[in-house]
Amino acid sequence: MKRLLIHSCCAHCAAYTVNYWREQGCEVSAFWYNPNIHPYTEHQHRLEAMQSLAKTMSLPIIVAEDYDIIDYFRGVVGHESERCQYCFKLRLSKTAGTAKEMGFDAFTTTLLISPQQKHELIKEVGEELARETGVEFLYTDLRKRYSDSRHITKPLDLYRQQYCGCVYSKWERYADITIK
Ligand code: SF4
């Protein structure tokens, strides 16, 4: 059985993704590392929701101790319109590195279920990291199951975020703008 580490961006994207990979025969653990979520209180609300889901699903979860907000901003300031690429690299390289250290066979991310994310870019970053680390990146396009995932979490009454994560995405969401 393949041991799979799933980078988890939030409970609502994780629910279906975890079921899907379990159905493929993987032994799944979740990995939490999201220093792109601002402010810290928002990060904690989303983490608590993820921990609650993990308990409900009997899902082992590894929570990275670091909240590397400074690294995040050092990486994106000056090229904010392309910030998602750095954001994916930061989060997925930590996931691939942890998978390697802890002896997992493969890694993936719940970001692949979201129609709001830059899907092809996530795939590209995951495959590049697989080449660099030698840990397999499991790819599948789950975007059509996004609403199924939300149906799973609805009765659990978990905290539900209103923007992607970074301060820029919050500004875009509430001011209805796109940063160029
Ligand atoms: S919009 Fe979302 S994916 Fe892009 S940098 Fe911000 S938090 Fe990361």
Q: Which molecules are bound in this entry?
A: iron/sulfur cluster
Strand content: 5-15%
CATH architect. name: 3-Layer(aba) Sandwich
Q: Could you report the average pLDDT, rounded to the nearest whole number?
A: 98
Number of helices: 7
Main beta-sheet strand count, sense and barrel state: 5 strands, parallel
- Uncertain segments of ≥5 residues (pLDDT<50)? none
Judging from the principal axes of the Cα atoms, what is the shape? globular
C-alpha Rg, in Å? 15 Å
N-C termini distance: 45 Å
Helices and strands, in order, run as EHEHEHHEHEHH
Q: If you consult CATH, what is the topology?
A: Rossmann fold
Number of domains: 1
Q: What is the level 1 CATH name?
A: Alpha Beta
- According to CATH, the homologous superfamily is HUPs
Per-chain topology:
Elements lengths: L2 E5 L3 H13 L3 E6 L7 H17 L4 E3 L5 H8 L6 H19 L4 E4 L9 H15 L2 E2 L8 H8 L13 H9 L5
Parallel strand pairs: 1-2, 1-4, 2-3, 4-5
Helix pairs in contact: 1-2, 1-6, 4-5
